[in-house]
Amino acid sequence: MSIFKPFKGFRPKKEFVDKIASRPYDVLNSEEARAEVKGNPYSFLHVVKPEVDLPEDIDLHSDTVYNKAKSNLEKLIQDGMFAQDGSANFYVYAQTMFGKTQYGIVGCSGVEDYLNNIIKKHELTRPDKEEDRMNHVRVANANAEPVFFTYRDNAKIDAIVSKTIKSPAEYDFKTEDGVGHHFWVINNSDDVKTIESVFDKEIEYQYVADGHHRTAAAALVGAERKKNNPEHNGTEEYNFFLSVLFPASQLTIIDYNRVVKDLNGLTSEQFIEKLSNSFEVNQKGAEEYKPTSLHNFSMYLDGKWYSLTAKSGTYKENDPIGVLDVTILTNEVLQPLLDIQDLRRSTRIDFVGGIRGLGELKQRVDSGEMKVAFALYPVTMEQLMDIADNNLIMPPKVTWFEPKLRSGLVFHSLD
Fold it and tell me: Do 240 and 105 share a structural domain?
């Protein structure tokens, strides 16, 4: 079964939490981060994107950047913006978007579980990104940002969460994107023991939803410290890393769409004719068309929307990867018709999170930047867990989760 431990979290002063809480490091670039922290010395971006306090031409992977993260974190503590809880707790972190609230448990997952595949992955990681986050963890000596995990629902955990949220939240604020953030401390010793016991005895796996690179980095630093500590006993804080676990039934995966710069020398008419070999093609006109089910796609081309429905034989029902719509699009359109052979490296394709809406696809095509756009029906949580359970890897850019976790509500020290 899986490791999930309480910890003595470092948390911000209540009156400053809305100024401290920031977007995660990987959803905005350095220029956007500099604009976001302007006039706000408390933003946690000073920790997770410390280049905001350094010259614009700084090497983002230099020791100077990681040391700035450490000093900025230490300053927030020294200035009294953060204090460590006196007992090892779990926490509830809830988010409300579009009238729906999802409730996660904050704690520490186990390094050994990552290494032993108890923590299930569905994406590949890049060594350069792993090393960047490893350096951040090493130098700051902390898991500054949580990773976003899921697990199969458990009634005992649900009951503790339901009881906890009846009390007033420790933090309760809304961010500029309209998302509500609510945070409670679980410090009742019986509840803490129950949560830990349930994961130890009943929750077989944890699944990475978002944050594969942060997860890998935290686990690899933990393994590194174990190797370098001759007195290692398994209870050290570096054996665990900060995570937020949401029950799978509460999460929704948003579509992750594609835009392509050209038709690989084909005219629009030729392209549509070739599409008809694999899809039932129906023109929908100027009005936006959103996919209605698995294996139904939306295409925007030359100012018109189309419905594309995959024909029988273009997918493998009993293959967790082969049945995915991203696989169908790649195998039937992107590779054979548009000659995009490597989705990770091709400069002719880009990916657009469904949170931006179909209007973003239309705008990028109408502007002339892109020639054609494809919208996909989102994968389900069950599909994600099925792929992870089979130790398979999804194609790139398949899952998009919203809302994103805010950084700075709590962090975990490796000491």
Answer: yes
